[in-house]
Amino acid sequence: MQLAFWTYEGPPHVGAMRVATGMRKLHYVLHAPQGDTYADLLFTMIERDGKRPPVTYTTFQARDLGGDTAELFKTAAREAYERFKPEALLVGASCTAELIQDDPGGLAKTAGLPVPVVPVELPSYSKKENWGAAETFYQICRAFVRPATTPAPRASCNILGPTALGFRHRDDVREIRGLLESLGVRVNLVAPNGASPTDLARMTEAHFNVVLYPETAGVTVAWLKRTHAMPHTTTIPMGVGATQDFIREVGELAGLDTSAVEQASRLPWYSRSVDSTYLTGKRVFIFADATHAVAAARVAAKEMGFTVCGLGTYSREFARDVRQAAALYGVEPLITDDYLEVERAIAEAQPELVLGTQMERHIAKRLGVPCAVISAPVHVQDFPARFSPVMGFEGANVLFDSWVHPLMMGLEEHLLTMFRDDHEFHDGAKPSHLPVVAAEDVAVLEAPAAITLNWAPDAERELKKIPFFVRGKARRNTEKFAAEQGIATITVETLYDAKAHFAR
User: Fold this and answer.
1) Mind listing the pLDDT tens digit for each residue in 367-387?
2) In a 10 Å sphere around its CB, with 0-12 CB exposed, 13-18 middle and 19+ buried, how is residue 129 labelled?
3) Cα–Cα distance measured from residue 75 to residue 73, given in angstroms and rounded to the nearest whole number
4) Is the peptide bond before 377 cis (omega within 30 degrees of 0)?
5) pLDDT of 392-429, one tens digit each?
6) Is the dihedral of CA 321, 324, 326, 329 positive or negative?
7) Distance of alpha carbon 51 from its chain centroid, rounded?
8) Where exactly does CATH 3.40.50.1980 map onto the chain?
9) Section 352-359 average pLDDT
10) Residue 269 has pLDDT above 80, yes or no
11) Beta-bridge partner residues of 88
């Protein structure tokens, strides 16, 4: 048995919550014990949504297990309908409630509810969050999508896949919707985000589907193609090249001539500029959900001139796609959901940049490597208030900024170190924009004269590891601390004791 305190995906009912929270006029009744309501925090604290998730929990307790938990669920379902008046109810069980086998779907259908009930059976101990989101969206579409009564206009589409708590989904949809409309393609609906159950009934009024996130929409679009003969896009428009391929694919599906469409990204210009010579050949390790990992590898290798030294995913359902992409770059694919295995792989590859999730952000920080987040799971800083897509032409600009800036900051530190012996940059130099201060004016900052302080050689070496622009302050603080403690010789231990003292 392995104990994990970080996971790339939550249980499948969290995926169902992502779909329900993104939709309108849909309510999720979740059979769950007290304590499983933690999932609310994901949306209200991380995504900072303006409303709480549309979820009602039964919140049964240990003492309820000796009674009728089935009746408790039916009561919760009735009360949820009376309070929220949704167009439909989604019902299921959390991973813990699954163990008592109460069958929420069957119970809800016997509760006499006046709205459609969509049960989702999500095996929590064999499947995970993204699978749960995909299965939930599929079941809702099966319940509400209806055959088209008239032929759909060819230049019309649905955008499928965005959910709540998705990485930049809100901004990606805005960017791609604008791109489609500029091509003359009418967007019929976006789902699950922003759609209601009754909206899904008109899904077949569009000619084709645009798939932005296969992890969520892949099962649904395959069903729509089999059942309703709706074709769908296969290109993820991430990066300039992929966006151009996406435009051509849309043109073929919509019967439009898109050959004259001009790209509107600055990334190609940056990549050809003199600054890009510093980026050429930089080793990058990529680990994310399959969609973003494969797309990021193409952008890194083909558009920024990086060398892909590692490629992997935690999305086992899409492992084949990642293996095929890894073969293109001559690297061994890493298919795992064990973050410790990912950390070992990054350490062995010794990359100069890591592109990953918030897990890899922490791993890269421990290893002292720059990192940019490209995929869920993410934290609050990856839901910016500004418009910041990663798809489309504007998304290509965002990718360039997000990936290149950490490397350029590393270059800046390298240059500062290189020129530290220059007359303006050495440790003793004062800031060039400030007047020279006489030594007697800063004497108060020196250590008390009563004690003659000496620095041990190992302490001097450790001090030099501190960036020079704060090294002077670190030296003064350490000497002040040593003088107050009556320490004559400053050692490495003294240096870190002083750091801890002034950090309080």
Assistant:
1) 989 999 999 998 888 888 889
2) buried
3) 5
4) yes
5) 999 999 998 899 887 765 555 545 554 555 555 555 55
6) negative
7) 21
8) 12-132, 156-254, 267-415
9) 94
10) no
11) 26
Q: Are 189 and 202 in contact (CB under 8 A)?
A: yes
The superfamily (CATH) of domain 156-254 is Nitrogenase molybdenum iron protein domain (3.40.50.1980)
Mean pLDDT over the full length of the chain: 86
Determine how many CB atoms are found less than 10 A away from the CB of residue 147. Answer: 9
**Residue 144: pLDDT band with limits 50, 70, 90:** very high
- 206 vs 34, residue with greater confidence: 206
Does the domain made of 12-132 have the CATH classification 3.40.50.1980?
yes
The residue type at 459: A
Residue 295 tokens read as 């797309």
Q: Report residue 351 as tokens.
A: 């990359």
Question: Which listed residue (40, 49, 103, 275) is catalytic?
Answer: 275
Asked if 375 and 293 count as a contact pair (C-beta separation under 8 A), the reply is yes
CATH 1.10.8.550 assigned to 439-503: yes
In CATH, what class is 267-415? alpha beta
pLDDT per residue as tens digits for the range 291-346: 999 999 999 999 988 999 999 999 999 999 999 999 999 999 999 999 999 999 99
- From CA 116, how far away is CA 139, in angstroms rounded? 12
Q: Is 64 a catalytic residue?
A: no
